[in-house]
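Our preliminary data section would be incomplete without showing what the modeling component actually yields. Below, a chain of 367 amino acids is followed by its predicted structure, encoded as tokens that our downstream tools consume directly.
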Amino acid sequence: MKDPRVERLARLICRYSIGATKGDAILITYEPAGEPLAEELYGEVLRSGGHPMLRINPGWAQEIFYREAAPHQLDRTSPFELQEAEKTRAWILVAATSNTRRKSGVDPKKVARAQIARRPILETVFSRMAKKEWTFMIAPFPAEGDAQEAEMGLSEYEDFVYRALLVDRRDPIAEWKKISARQAALVRRFSRIRDLRIVGEGTDIRMSVKGRKWINCDGHHNLPDGEIFTGPVEDSVEGTIRYTYPAIYQGREVTDVRLTFKKGKVVKAEAAKGEDLLKSLLDMDEGARRVGEVAVGTNYGITRFTRSILFDEKIGGSIHMAVGRSIPESGGVNQSTLHWDMIKDMRKGGEIHADGKVIYRNGRFLR
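Predicted structure:
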């Protein structure tokens, strides 16, 4: 018997998130563990009048690639993926993993090298996004591997995921529209800010956000959603931040990350575990040591860390910053192949200061 929550999720993605319409070429990428959602999406795209394309991306393929690929293969930009970026109107990634630790033994330098080769693909999609020609959606389907990472049984994890997505409600689209309206008010408030300061345990960091645009993340690119973000002025970031939660990169974990910035650039990077990976990725290219995004998580329905960035960066009462590429629509101009979100819990003593005034304390906005 089909789970009606999966059907509602596919409908939410196609009708609300990407707005699929007649004639749209829509790529659906998934691991075998995510096939039930891929199946529902395929039918929903057809009902919208679009043209669905399926690409299965099994986890073992990446494992073999990083083990066997020669230098010229690591440095190759896939013409197939580039064509997908050029010709599709939308891309849906079903995030469902049977084994989240497949890359745990991979040389981080190989990962960084392969990411650099993807730069033409990233340039294409960001350019098309800026012109409103292309969009993407990343949405989870609860799988055994992800449940294990979150330290839950599968049925418990399914309930957690579908609650966070609001597809346990009768009309998820109406619910996400309400969230969009609430966050729009926050965006208006933050858009008046010039200087931002974040204070907390091991953290005192300042940056200018003058002239930058705050973005309302309301379920159109990620599900679950619930954050507002911008790109800080690239050379303005000063101070130190200590991240509460592990930073996860392609299944590999870096814990107790501490970054110190001067004139917008990371000048000191430390971690209790995974420091070699941290430094390797920060050295990926010139822009990898600068901040591309600063954000506030607003989804108070997500209360626990799951080791999945789709959920964790949205935790109500958290902030996150990404080193690397800016999102162009925010006004940020930093260029990098890297975009790596790192999360800090603000619920115990954390503060956000706007132009010298405290506007957020202990994970909540002040009136």
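The longest strand covers residues 291-297. Residues 4-170 form a domain with the Thermophilic metalloprotease-like fold (CATH 3.40.1830.10). Preliminary results of this kind motivate Aim 1 of the renewal.
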